[in-house]
């Protein structure tokens, strides 16, 4: 049986009232979500929240919630939806207090239900950027990063499991937002700067409202 997840009572009123734009950033493991988000932050000043980074911070904090997460992440599976959503909500509220003008939610949603729950509890995403990269490229990038990242999930066994989770759980997210007309599919095999050029062309279409 899955362990009981500790939930928090989170007041979302300030976040809902702010009505800032929200972008979901999805793509396979190593597709460049974090790399492109850093560049988007530098150009547009949005707040970057990576669900994976939030989970790793929670693990490092030594909290009871964090101790349940390590095994799941090292197996390449998905952490329960409520845990991720609570961490994202808390981080968004902190950023709103500091005057955030919008969010890049990186690595979220990883399953259709995550997107639906986020949008019903918080607000609809403006666009979903999907970084489309072939599996062999993803594996090459992650094995290269493994030399320096220190990430417990950057090893070939876990990388294979992360890829499997992406194909089974996250690929339907892409179809779901495509059918809603909100998906921006970006071929992310090229150079970081070329990919960013495509990102900018798409974000500029909506930036007048950022
Ligand atoms: P997370 O931390 O999100 O990992 P991931 O999705 O596997 O993606 P990465 O962070 O490894 O890669 P990235 O796409 O950010 O690429 P990056 O820019 O770093 O999640 C980890 C785990 O947490 C999950 O497996 C799951 O267990 C859990 N989790 C997270 N979110 C969850 C959620 N919503 N629900 C449930 N569970 C969740 O680039 C990778 C490498 O490639 C770098 O070395 C970079 O320099 C290089 N690179 C980038 N772009 C290029 C390029 N164009 N050309 C060449 N190299 C490039
Ligand atoms: Mg990342």
TrEMBL record:
Residues 50-79 are annotated as: NMPbind. Consists of three domains, a large central CORE domain and two small peripheral domains, NMPbind and LID, which undergo movements during catalysis. The LID domain closes over the site of phosphoryl transfer upon ATP binding. Assembling and dissambling the active center during each catalytic cycle provides an effective means to prevent ATP hydrolysis. One of its GO terms (molecular function) is AMP kinase activity. GO terms for biological process: ADP biosynthetic process; AMP metabolic process; ATP metabolic process; nucleoside triphosphate biosynthetic process; UDP biosynthetic process. It comes from the Eukaryota. The keyword Transport does not apply. Residues 144-154 are annotated as: LID. InterPro entries: Adenylat/UMP-CMP_kin (IPR000850), Adenylat_kinase_CS (IPR033690), AK1 (IPR028582), AK1/5 (IPR006267), P-loop_NTPase (IPR027417). AMP binds at residues 51, 56, 77-79, 107-110, 114, 151, 162. This is Adenylate kinase isoenzyme 1. It is found in: Cytoplasm. It comes from Caenorhabditis remanei. PROSITE patterns: ADENYLATE_KINASE. Its main location: cytoplasm. Keywords: ATP-binding, Cytoplasm, Kinase, Nucleotide-binding, Transferase. It catalyses: dAMP + ATP = dADP + ADP; a ribonucleoside 5'-phosphate + ATP = a ribonucleoside 5'-diphosphate + ADP; GTP + UDP = UTP + GDP; thiamine diphosphate + ADP = thiamine triphosphate + AMP. The keyword Nucleus does not apply.
